[in-house]
Specification:
With 472 residues, the protein is of the alpha/beta class. The protein has 17 helices and 14 strands. InterPro entries: AAA+_ATPase (IPR003593), AAA_lid_NorR (IPR058031), CheY-like_superfamily (IPR011006), Homeodomain-like_sf (IPR009057), HTH_Fis (IPR002197), P-loop_NTPase (IPR027417), Sigma_54_int (IPR002078), Sigma_54_int_dom_ATP-bd_1 (IPR025662).
Length: 472
């Protein structure tokens, strides 16, 4: 549903001219001839994006501006002025975004509308969850539920997930919905800072604490006071620093490097990693006690290949966002073939990979509908696999039955035998599902991407429909 611009003026010439202009640019507009009429329209619609105001009675105009400022701050408000007036020399009243010269310049008006759309979209994103968490899948709905639950507590949170799944975005969302939202959000990448500098980075230092410390400096814990401190890639933190971080979490106090004064810590701690911390503990690279201190409320972010049903929504949201950023008039769209190609790809970069792809295509092919043929080559490589869409009759799951084997020589190549058995079962599943990979994956209780990898590894081709004989 299209946003509406509201023209509030008692000048009939301006009304007629603005109606013509908005009709030409195909944008919806409505008119109010008085402050009272404007108030009724504002109360009856939540689609007002812009308000353009010019009333002959100065007091009435001030009342309208006051109403817009106090009750509808999300509406971008502009005062209409005569061409001989210079907007740069005029003081913009409180609550007014800018001035609009009349007669209206088409390019100037389109720019004004575009800026208002970007502002509204940014406001909507602040009210809701970020684009990276867009989706209707059960996996992302669970993540959204956990974000809203933990945001109202002050517990430590541990975010787990692959690179590109949106761990920092989730951390910012938790901060945004928390009671600390008015405080700072400070992010530190523990893997990007040299070990010898990490202590100073986190806790600050006093003048003369080490060579080059010519001034005192506050650390991230101090900068995040009253807000949230996000420790990204916590799995890369050196063991000596883990001990010091544990002490801060336990005692909620710390000292700057080279300092004697004890400083109280008042931060909400959120940590994130793409690593398996329990495996790191087993390897002696991460402290068990620190893990349990951080793991009060874990949130695991699913890779995009596990929620492919969300890909169309992500493509649409990113296309619209990037269209506004680039100042384009029409966002790119993705047809079914492109969506299917992306859904078949493992997408190791996850949501970040999708966003980068959309930005690239928005620059190369602005306003176009993107088909699979227009995607970069790496996304088209899996399309060669047969994915026929004929009517499919559900078949029961395949029960693997190992062939009878005679140990004539007293030995057997188990690895070769299991590989042949696996290849035979995959062939049978593909034949039974008319070579529809996604259906065969369900029969075999595998992920589609896993099955595609096995098809490649085992050299399975549709030309040879008969499975190879299994031999010991």
């Amino acid at each position: 549903m299209q946003d509406i611009s509201l023209i509030i003026t008692d000048d009939k010439i301006i009304s007629a001219n603005m109606n013509t202009v908005f009709g030409f640019i195909q944008k919806e507009v409505t008119f109010a001839g008085s402050g009272k009429e404007a108030k009724n329209i504002l109360q009856g619609s939540d689609r007002i994006l812009l308000a353009f105001v010019l009333l002959s009675e100065e007091q009435e105009e001030k009342q309208v501006l006051a109403l817009l400022r106090s009750s509808y701050p999300e509406i971008s408000t502009h005062l209409i002025i005569a061409p001989e007036e210079t907007s740069s020399s005029l003081k913009v009243p409180a609550g007014v975004t800018n001035y609009l010269h009349f007669p209206v310049d088409f390019e100037s008006l389109m720019h004004t509308i575009k800026k208002a759309e970007i502002s509204r979209n940014n406001l909507d994103r602040r009210k809701g969850l970020p684009i990276s968490l867009t989706g209707n899948s059960d996996e992302i709905q669970e993540v959204e539920s956990l974000i809203r639950q933990v945001s109202q507590a002050d517990a430590n949170v541990l975010l787990l997930g692959e690179s590109g799944t949106g761990k920092e975005i989730v951390a910012r969302a938790i901060h945004q919905f928390s009671l600390r939202a008015d405080g700072p959000f400070i992010a530190v990448n523990c893997g990007a800072i040299p070990p010898e500098l990490l202590e100073s980075e986190l806790f600050g230092h006093e003048k003369g604490a080490f060579t080059g410390a010519t001034n005192s400096r506050r650390g991230r814990f101090e900068l995040a006071k009253g807000g949230t401190l996000f420790l990204d890639e916590i799995g890369d933190m050196p063991m000596p620093m883990q001990v010091k971080l544990l002490r801060v979490i336990q005692e909620r106090t710390f000292e700057r490097v080279g300092g004697m004064k004890t400083i109280a810590s008042n931060v909400r701690l959120i940590a994130a990693t793409h690593q398996d911390l329990e495996q790191r503990i087993a390897e002696g690279e991460f402290r068990t006690d620190l893990f349990y201190r951080l793991n009060v409320f874990p949130i695991k972010l699913p890779p995009l290949r596990n929620r492919t049903s969300d890909i169309p929504l992500l493509l649409k949201e990113f296309s619209e966002k990037i269209c506004l950023q680039l100042g384009k008039s029409t966002a790119i769209e993705f047809d079914d073939s492109a969506i299917e190609a992306l859904s078949q790809h493992p997408l190791p970069g996850n949501v970040r990979e999708i966003e980068n792809l959309v930005e690239r295509l928005s620059i190369l092919r602005p306003g176009e509908t993107i088909s699979a043929d227009l995607l970069p080559p790496k996304y088209k490589s899996l399309l060669a696999l047969p994915e026929r869409t004929q009517h499919f009759v559900q078949r029961p799951n395949i029960e693997p039955r190992a062939p009878s084997i005679k140990f004539d020589s007293g030995t057997i190549n188990l690895k070769q035998h299991l590989s042949a058995l696996e290849k035979s079962l995959i062939f049978q599943a593909l034949d039974d599902t008319d070579w529809v990979v996604s259906k065969a994956a369900r029969v075999l209780t595998l992920r589609r991407t896993t099955l595609i990898q096995k098809i490649r590894k085992l050299g399975i081709r549709s030309e040879n429909r008969q499975p190879q004989a299994i031999s010991a």
